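Good morning C.,

I know you're traveling, so I'll keep this short. The sequence:
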Amino acid sequence: MSNSSLAQSIIDKIGGKENVNRAWHCVTRLRFNLVDEDKVDIESIKKSPEVFGAQFQNGQFQIIIGNNVSNVFKEVEGIIGQGGSVDTADQEKEEKKNLISRFLDMISGVFSPVIPAIAGAGMMKGILALLQVMGWISVESDAYQVFTIISDVAFYFLPFLLAVSAARRFKVSEYLALAVTGSLLYPTMTSGLAEGANGLTFLGLTIPFNTYSASVIPVILAVWVLSYVYKFINAIVPKILRIILTPTLVLLIMIPFTLIVAGPIGFTVGDYVGIVIGWLFAHGGAIAGVILGGLLPMFIITGMHYGFLPIFLQNIGKNGYDTAILPLNFINSLAQSGAVFAVALRTKDKKLKSIAASSGFSALLGVTEPALFGVNLKLKRPLYATMIAGAISGGFSVFFAVKCFGVVAQGLQALPVYIDPADSKNLIYAIISVIIAFVVSFVATLLLGFEDVKNEEEEQQDKVMEESGSREFEMFSPLEGNVVPLESVPDKTFSSSLMGPTIAIQPQTGEVVAPFSGEVAVVYPTKHAIGLRSDQGVEALIHIGLETVNLEGKHFETMVQQGQKVTKGSTLVTFDQEAIKGEGYNLVTLMIITNSHELNEMKFSREPGSIKKGEKLLQAK
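The tokens, ready to paste straight into the viewer:
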């Protein structure tokens, strides 16, 4: 059975998604807080070949999946469409990132799922602009109108795309997110804007008519707040009334908030950005080109670049050309293209290579969203390379006052609008500026490097095992205590070795050390379990105590982080034995070999009895 089918079967047998208050997982088990436990068909769940066991314990319904639990949970989460805390190392890693990295990850996480839509529309925009410049299509033709719809629809209705993606990111109902976002594009709002009306008044507060198509900040802000409002309302509404009353109250709160607060904030931020940029160009000269050229990708990421519209329209209306925004957009297009082409050259992942190459071509034609959101933002360092290139080339462009005489997509097809009858050097400077942008971004991306997508990890591990298969591997005790018979462990998942060969130790001290030299593969946020990978490719899981996941990290302290290299005997985790026992938990600690199928020979070298840290536990090839 596939993961998706298994997840759907589980949800059906626990009473449907409406019966789930909260869902999460630990190392081996799906865990649910349910509305009505009587709706669970536990015997049917146990009969599934992919399920190793199911039980009610400590107010939770637990389904034992084993090593595949994280993949099954992803499907479960997609079905229930609501919150649930995910007990993975990713959360801990996220918490340790700085604010900028967390912000970029959030934006990337929201935009990544919508890339197919904006990539297709973006490519069409570039092609249509090229057809128009070459004179192969008339703007008066019906074909042009249809092509325009194809190229604009994903951008015009971007708020709806982002609403779904943000809802998944912030763990809230996608349908509520769509309803809330829809208020920004409701006909009353769009027609009021078109007619130049002053806006609406609600509870004494003004709702302005603004342009929200293709907006970013209002949607993300609204859905983020929605995730908290939903949880709060759902918690205080009686269970019997939740299905009707919760969404009613949520919409009653969130739609006015979106129209009065979230929407105007996003629009106003963009407006003030335009004012600041205008002042900067009026007083900063080439420095303005360096600053804006470097920061332009960030403005695009947040959608604040729409605040630049009045600047270049005013410049063209007044002077017949723009020396500020449009040339820098041209530079940004080539910088984004250079970075993703470097990624396409360097990456070993076929899918990423394809995306980078196609988005690089799209960026050459002035459509940068696929390159920016699909590749550079996701990998981060290529984004920094585009900012470096934008700053250098932007300073050059503004210093030589490169002029743009037309409002077209700022890609290679825009070169004709840089022809100045009064100054033949203008086109030359424009070409030089974009060449600088492309080359600097390309080279900087190669020099800075990036963390490549690792979907070939299993092949690499197989290679390691093949290379080191003839060498013996030894694992030593990670703590001091007593080896106990595995059948005495009161947990079937561990006592039956469902996850792999297991040895159980009752600890006498509160310190766990590395049983071999290698790398920390995963550190769970609840600190009760840690995964290791030896230099020979052997994978082991150390699980401290039974059901200690419920302590949520209390009384535990981790001394290492994911990806860290460790040597045999290095301290991994410390814990307060007495405090944990005082809360009623069994501290028996399990050592599990999770990839034993890759080993040729394996033998435990210890029988039940006392053991010290560093004594040999296992020998394998």
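Safe travels,
E.
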